[in-house]
From TrEMBL:
It comes from the Bacteria. InterPro entries: GTP-CH-I_C/QueF (IPR043133), GTP-CH-I_N (IPR043134), GTP_CycHdrlase_I (IPR001474), GTP_CycHdrlase_I_CS (IPR018234), GTP_CycHdrlase_I_dom (IPR020602). Homopolymer. This is GTP cyclohydrolase 1. GO terms for molecular function: GTP binding; GTP cyclohydrolase I activity; zinc ion binding. Pathway: Cofactor biosynthesis; 7,8-dihydroneopterin triphosphate biosynthesis; 7,8-dihydroneopterin triphosphate from GTP: step 1/1.
Amino acid sequence: MTTPASPVAPETAGVDLAAAERAAREFLRALGVPLDREGMQDTPGRMTRGYAELLTARPFRLTTFPNEEGYDELVLARDIPVRSVCEHHLLPFVGVAHVGYLPGSRILGLSKLARVVEHFACRPQVQERLTKQTADWLEEHLDPQGVGVVIEAEHTCMTLRGVQATGSKTVTSTLLGSLRSDASSRQEFLDLTGVRR
């Protein structure tokens, strides 16, 4: 029997696309972008819808199941796509998350690991917070023996502007419970993520 599936709702109620499109049009004009060309006339609307998609998490239901077999080994989902927007420049950062846990009395529907990452990524973010929020949420809602989250991402605020460090990646991690306190469990998790150290 599954637990009651509690909905996790998006946190962007009150989005006004028409106002955002007007603001986008003024923003682009203020930067000297010509919007009278045929190919540019709909750009403010496309820009608005694109950012709305990046900043609006889809609701999902948390589904857990009893750990009837007493499974006590690592569960890991690797290479979960991550896309978010840097809160300092509103430029995208993209990469992958590796999310794992050591089950306690319940196990999680595997797709929910990706849903939790997406939920916290769909807002202006910093990678460090995104990593910790994902791990903390899983620890709170799943009560596992341990949780590990590693995110590797390329930040366009670093690669397209400023220092222009093309190809650089940022790696962040949060380890909780036995994945933090037990050296062999921690090493197993890090080895299985495939992250180069």
